[in-house]
Amino acid sequence: METIEGVAKNVGLEMALICPEIFANMSDSEEEATEEEADVEDTFIVGTYDSMVSNEFVTIKIIDENKAVKDFIWLFPFDGDTLFIKKKVDKGEKIEVHYREQEFFDPKTNSYQKYNEITEIKLL
After folding, report:
1. Average model confidence (pLDDT) for the chain?
2. Roughly how many angstroms between the first and final C-alpha of the chain, as a whole number?
3. Are the beta carbons of 44 and 51 closer than 8 angstroms?
4. What is the DSSP string of the chain?
5. Per residue in 95-105, pLDDT tens?
C-alpha cells in the first residue's frame, strides 16, 4: 500500500510540473463546491408544536411567534425524528425546527410548489 501511495505522490508531483492548469482547475472546483455548501444556510424556526397530519407526506404544523401556522414536511430521517416516532412531543411544546426549502412537482396544481423539508428538530 505504501508503494502505491508513493507512486501516486510521484505521479501527482510530475503532473503538477507538466500540467499546472489542471491542478489550478481542480483547486477552483473544490473552492466552488465549498462556497456552494456555505450558501446553503441552516434555516430554522422556533415555535410551538401544533399537530402532525398524514396525507401524501407527513406534515408537522408549528405555530411561530406571530401566531402563524407553518407547515414542514417529513420526507427523510432527520436528527430528532424519534421524538415523533416515540410520540414524545405534545401539543404546545416549544421546539426548534431546522429545514430547507425544496420545490416538488404537485400533480394537483400541475406546477412546482415550495415545501419546507425538515432536517432536524430539537425539543426546547
Report:
1. 83
2. 49
3. no
4. -HHHHHHHHHHHHHHHHH-HHHHHHHHHHHHHHHHHHHHS--EEEEEEEEEEEESSSEEEEEE-TTS-EEEEEE-S--BTHHHHHTT---TT-EEEEEEEEEEEEETTTTEEEEEEEEEEEEE-
5. 999 999 999 89
As a whole number of angstroms, the distance between CA 62 and CA 44 comes to: 12
Residue entry with cell 510530475:
14
Of 66, 80, 62, the C-alpha closest to 116 is: 62
- Residue 64: what are its φ and ψ, rounded to 5°? -85, -175
Cell numbers found for residue 103: 420545490
Q: Compute how many other C-beta atoms are within 10 angstroms of the C-beta atom of residue 114.
A: 8
Least confident of 30-44, 53-67, 73-87, 106-120: 30-44
Q: How far apart, in Å, are the Cα atoms of 121 and each of 40, 53, 124? A: 18, 17, 10
* Mean pLDDT (whole number) for 78-92: 94
Type of residue at 69 = V
